[in-house]
Write a structure and sequence with these properties.
This protein is of the alpha+beta class. It has one helix at residues 46-61, and strands at residues 7-10, 27-30. Helices cover 24% and strands 12% of the residues. The protein is extended.
Length: 67
């Protein structure tokens, strides 16, 4: 059995009623079960901070352009 992923890539780019979604846009978001969207102080939540640290480490290791 695979473990659930704490992150989801979501295409939530709503450009308006007459426009298509932007083809090169997506959002990384915590899965609904983690409840990140309800956090009042995300920097005080250990699960949120663990996911954030993991993402920063991953992005820094696989950087495709210079900061």
């Amino acid at each position: 059995m695979l473990a659930a992923s704490p992150l989801c890539a979501i295409d939530n780019t709503d450009c308006g009623p007459e426009l298509d979604r932007h083809p090169a846009h997506a959002v990384l978001a915590g899965c609904e079960k983690l409840g990140f969207d309800a956090l009042l102080k995300p920097d005080e939540d250990p699960t949120f901070m663990a996911v954030r640290r993991g993402l920063l480490e991953l992005f820094n290791r696989h950087r495709i352009w210079q900061a």
